[in-house]
Specification:
The chain is an alpha/beta fold. 42% of the residues lie in helices and 20% in strands. An 8-stranded parallel barrel has the order 4-5-6-10-11-12-13-14, surrounded by 6 helices. The protein has a 3-stranded antiparallel beta sheet with strand order 1-2-3.
Length: 375
């Protein structure tokens, strides 16, 4: 079994260019991971997701354990075979969804018991069970089990939660064991408190992980507070390991995170926006439902090479979106995912030659222009 590794190739300021090598292929960083919550990136075929330039997908422990069940996925050959995706998969630990979706949850030192949001059935998740589920799914990058309190919260509550997450991180490491070809990432917590984040980073370093995530952001604190935290949080983590910012974000969040030393991100935004008629373009956001698109023969973005922009007009996208046609979400999601990967490719190329700052200025300048009005 070939091993996993992370190589830092170039730096430009704090922005980093690198690659994660796994037995299932290379992940070029900075990387954006489309979210395949329940074994599918909604509205997309797996080969279409790969065609956008995605090297890795995110799968969701909480959703897959409830339906169809991790043991069933394992019997059917693991998540890669099950969903027909041959490249690497990162699975989250389930902690965040338990906190945000599950009903009647009870938190103890041992773990969390909760009721399924699907049918009310009772389940338990602990660091050990989370590692077992992620092993059954066969994910390449496994996340430690943690607790993520919603912000804002009292400092005492955040400190308590962070310390519990660090004890769970040690148990996750222990339960993960020695699995060549698979990586385990620890998750830094501590809210927006630099001291608590530092304490968390120290605890994670002492345990030792293959990569480190900045957790507990993008939970309602706003962009300014998030970027403020990223001004120091990534620097507290080991430099020679990949750094993953969980659940982020809008295009300008993604660029701001990479500028501050983040290597990996995931977000449901490109696909969720696509299903509600929102397109992300280099000139900002476009709501295709707006009447002004009804007679517009132009593509969403004339500079975009995705199949949506090459083959379909704004007028058509407006029509299928307003008519509630399935193809609307499919085409807009494809464009959005393509655009996000284009941003990542642009940043990788700029970091490689030391022009990240100029690239970033151009990125913001184009967005400031706003969508092109019809002539």
């Amino acid at each position: 079994m070939s091993m996993t590794s992370f190589e830092l190739i170039a730096r430009d300021g704090k922005a980093r260019l690198g690659k994660i090598t796994t037995p299932r292929g290379e992940i070029r960083t900075p990387a954006f991971m489309p979210v395949g919550t329940a074994g599918t990136v909604k509205g997309m075929m797996p080969e279409s997701v790969a065609a956008t330039g995605a090297d890795v997908l995110l799968g969701n422990t909480y959703h897959l354990m409830l339906r169809p069940g991790a043991e069933r996925v394992a019997r059917l050959g693991g998540l890669h075979a099950f969903m027909n995706w041959e490249k690497p998969i990162l699975t989250d630990s389930g902690g965040f969804q338990v906190m945000s979706l599950a009903g009647l949850r009870k938190l103890t030192e041992e773990g969390v018991t909760f009721k399924s949001h699907i049918d009310g059935s009772k389940h338990a998740l602990s660091p050990e069970r989370s590692m077992e589920i992620q092993r059954l799914l066969g994910s390449d990058i496994v996340m430690a089990f943690d607790e993520c309190p919603a912000l804002p919260a009292e400092r005492g509550r955040i400190a308590e939660s962070m310390q519990l997450s660090m004890r769970w991180a040690a148990r996750s490491r222990e339960a993960f064991g020695d699995r060549p070809g698979h990586m385990l990432f620890g998750i830094q917590q501590g809210g927006l408190d630099e001291h608590l984040r530092g304490e968390s980073a120290e605890a994670l370093r002492a345990i030792g992980f293959d990569g480190y995530a900045v957790g507990g952001l993008a939970v309602g604190e706003g962009q300014e507070a998030m970027l403020g935290c990223l001004d120091y949080a990534p620097d507290q983590l080991p430099e020679e390991k990949p750094r993953y910012l969980m659940g982020v974000g809008k295009p300008d969040d993604v660029v701001g995170a990479v500028k501050r030393g983040i290597d990996m991100m995931d977000c449901v935004l490109p696909s969720r926006s696509g299903r509600t008629g929102q397109a992300w373009t280099r000139r900002g956001q476009v709501n295709i439902r707006n009447a002004r698109h009804a007679d517009d023969p132009r593509p969403l973005d004339e500079h975009c090479s995705c199949p949506t922009c090459r083959g379909y007009s704004r007028a058509y996208l407006h029509h299928v979106c307003r008519s509630g046609e399935m193809i609307s979400g499919m085409l807009l999601t494809w464009h959005n995912l393509h655009y996000y990967q284009e941003i990542m490719q642009g940043m990788r190329a700029a970091i490689a030659v030391g022009t990240f700052e100029a690239w970033e200025q151009d990125f913001h300048a184009q967005r400031a222009l706003g969508d092109i009005e019809r002539l």
